[in-house]
Amino acid sequence: MNRKQLVEQIFQKKTFLCVGLDPDIRKMPECVQQEEDPIFFFNKQIIDATAPYCVAYKPNLAFYECLGVKGMTSFERTVEYLQKFYPDHFIIADAKRGDIGNTSAMYARTFFEEYNVDALTVAPYMGEDSVTPFLEYKGKWVVLLALTSNKGSHDFQLTEDKEGERLFEKVLKKSQQWGNEDNMMYVVGATQGQMFQDIRKVAPNHFLLVPGVGAQGGSLQDVCKYGIIKDCGLLVNSSRGIIYAGHDENFAQASAEKAKDLQQQMEVELSKIG
Ligand SMILES: O=c1ccn([C@@H]2O[C@H](COP(=O)(O)O)[C@@H](O)[C@H]2O)c(=O)[nH]1
């Protein structure tokens, strides 16, 4: 999916919500745990219930890989289900890959050829040759970690060099020599609040994938105040806050209500940019 198509979806559906598909069997209602493929069953109900309120889904690979082949089968079935029944929804594989070029090329093949998702999260730490193999796929997106939502983001990302430039700013600047606004997004945590102002100074037009609303306590309004741009430029993710909203057989309905609540707040924010 290209930028124009993504932006069209956002303004048509009045939402820039990304639902995180981070299924943990231990947190699912009992009725789901008895299913043959509980993860796929759970995801399918969540997707059917939340699809009207979001434009993207972000399965995080950790929640599938931890179950070995069975988990990866659930991941594959989830992606295929989305592609078949919700082809207008953007799919981000949150796998945070990146290695020497030769190996990154294989990761790119996995996610962009085998699974054919729209976007993949990539860690910038190993530099240019670890990122560019992902950028060779037309119509696909690299979502580069810039300023993450966790406390540990302070350990490296916020450290300054002698000129006062912070590491996340260096990542934003340097990576713009490799990719562009049509094939590269950045991860910026919703918990970073006012920092979105600084991000926008260096990346004024790039889309940002923003996790951290919901369970991590980030504010959607702050993200929008400092981060929204004329074509929105934001995909705001919530995982646990949506998918574990309910605890019984009506869990999907509870998720839909949470997603709808975020959608309505996003509609207000979108109306401000006309
Ligand atoms: O900086 C980051 C980068 C990635 N994530 C991922 O997003 C979701 C957030 O889940 P919640 O349940 O809504 O907190 C999860 O998959 C993280 O691994 C992030 O949170 N922060």
Task: Give an overview in words.
The protein has helices at residues 3-13, 30-33, 38-50, 62-65, 68-85, 101-114, 128-135, 153-156, 167-175, 195-202, 220-227, 240-243, 251-272, and strands at 17-21, 56-59, 90-97, 119-122, 141-147, 184-188, 208-211, 234-238. The mean pLDDT is 97. It has an eight-stranded parallel β-barrel with strand order 1-2-3-4-5-6-7-8, surrounded by seven helices. It has one domain: TIM Barrel, CATH 3.20.20. The protein contains 13 helices and eight strands. The chain starts with a helix and ends with a helix. Helix 3 runs parallel beside helix 5, helix 3 (38-50) packs across helix 13 (251-272) and helix 6 (101-114) runs parallel beside helix 7 (128-135). By secondary structure, the protein is an alpha/beta fold. The longest helix is centred in the C-terminal third of the chain and has 22 residues, at 251-272. Helices cover 46% and strands 15% of the residues. The chain is globular, with a radius of gyration of 18 Å. The structure holds the ligand O=c1ccn([C@@H]2O[C@H](COP(=O)(O)O)[C@@H](O)[C@H]2O)c(=O)[nH]1. The ligand O=c1ccn([C@@H]2O[C@H](COP(=O)(O)O)[C@@H](O)[C@H]2O)c(=O)[nH]1 binds next to strand 8 and helix 12.
